[in-house]
Amino acid sequence: xxxxxxxxxxxxxxxxxxxxxxxxxxxxxxxxxxxxxxxxxxxxxxxxxxxxxxxxxxxxxxxxxxxxxxxxxxxxxxxxxxxxxxxxxxxxxxxxxxxxxxxxxxxxxxxxxxxxxxxxxxxxxxxxxxxxxxxxxxxxxxxxxxxxxxxxxxxxxxxxxxxxxxxxxxxxxxxxxxxxxxxxxxxxxxxxxxxxxxxxxxxxxxxxxxxxxxxxxxxxxxxxxxxxxxxxxxxxxxxxxxxxxxxxxxxxxxxxxxxxxxxxxxxxxxxxxxxxxxxxxxxxxxxxxxxxxxxxxxxxxxxxxxxxxxxxxxxxxxxxxx
Length: 322
Fold this sequence. Notes:
alpha/beta; D-Maltodextrin-Binding Protein, domain 2; ten-stranded mixed sheet; about 20% strand; globular
C-alpha cells in the first residue's frame, strides 16, 4: 500500500508526540543498571539478582545489579533519583524506603514523589517470636504478660528503623503494651541473643528464623501478614488478635520520576510474567517470600500508603536514624 507524504508526516508527528511509546519499542538497547542499597548476599540483593537474570533473558540485554550500601539504602536511592529518566537505571525499592522518609530528618529527595513505581515483586512476612523461657504460648498471653510486666520484655531488632523494629512498634501502639526495644546491627546478632535468652522477643523474617522454629529453639506466636503463610501454616495471623494489624517486608522495582510510561510498562509486564514462573516461585518460597504482582499504579498507591503508615509509627516510637 502506498503512503502519501501527508500520511507519512502525520505518522512522524504522532511518534514525536509520544516519545515514551517510541523509546519503549527499542528498549532496552543496552545494559541496565539495577541499584541495591545494601551489601551483597542479603534478601534485597538476592531478589534483585533473581529478577535481573530473568529480565536479561527476556529482554536480551544485561541487567547489572550494583550494590550501593550506605545510610540505610538512601545513597542508592539518591543515585537513582539523580539518574536520567530513561529506564537504564533502576532501584530495588523496599520497605526501608518508606520507613526512611520519616526516620531521617533531612533527605535530599522525596521517596514517593521522586521514584517512579515500576513493579511490586515480593512480600516477606515477619514472625513474632519469643524465647521458650517466656511463659506464654499465644498472642493474647503475650499481650497480657507484657501489660503485667511493662518494660520487662526486651524486643530485639535488626536495627533502628528496620521493618523488624517498626513491626514491633506497631504492635506496641495498637495493643497498648510497653516493650523495651534493643537494636542490633543486623538480624544475626539479634537472633543470637534471642536464642540465648538475653532478649525475650523479636519480629524476624521467616528466612532468618524458620530453622530455629522447626528445631523448637524459638516459639512463633504469629505471622504479621494479613493471611497465613505456606511455610508456617499452623501459625496464626497477628491481626486475628489485634484487628487491623499488618506488617511485612516487601521489594519492588523503581525508576527516576518521569521515566517514559512505555518503558515502565515493558518492565512491569516482564516482571509480572517472571512472578508466574514456577522456578521463580519456588525460589521465593525458599526465601519465605510470596509473589506480589500488580500494575505500576497499584504499586504507587501501595508505596504511598506504606510511607504514611510507617510515618505514624515512627512518630509514636520516637525512633531516629543511627
